[in-house]
Amino acid sequence: MATRNTAGGLAARMGLTALGAAALIIGAFLKWAGATTGVKIHLRSLIQRPNFTSGVPAKFLHSAGFLMIVLGLAALVGLGFRSGWLTRIAGALGIVGIVLFLIQLYRVNGHPSPGPGLWICLVGAVAALIGGFLGTRRVAVTPAAPVTPATGASPSDRV
To answer: Which domains are present in the chain?
Structure first.
């Protein structure tokens, strides 16, 4: 059984993952809804209607933007694994988080329009997801030698 990695696939994986992680991190600090940045939107806004009129921003560690930063860092850590599973999970969770926020945003009466930070995070999550599939190890299976019925040994075993 032979294994091989393509240099182009590995370079594409590293590039897309780095681009995706950078977009996830930068997008977290940009505007997500109206004038509100991702680090000021509470994490529970992913499952409940966000309240933009209260004027109380979320703490940094409780924000949706912090979640995107953690997912971007997890995508980068995923480069350390050959299979890319952690990068794929980080990208998929980023997409799910943004879709959940968009659903809740559109449930608000007179909702603000989604900001550029949200879309940058979405592009970064998609790039990380795609990057997690590239450059993984491929296994080429070689066929086994045929076994002769009379002796139970392959022709190459005879001396």
So the answer is: 2-141 (1.20.140)
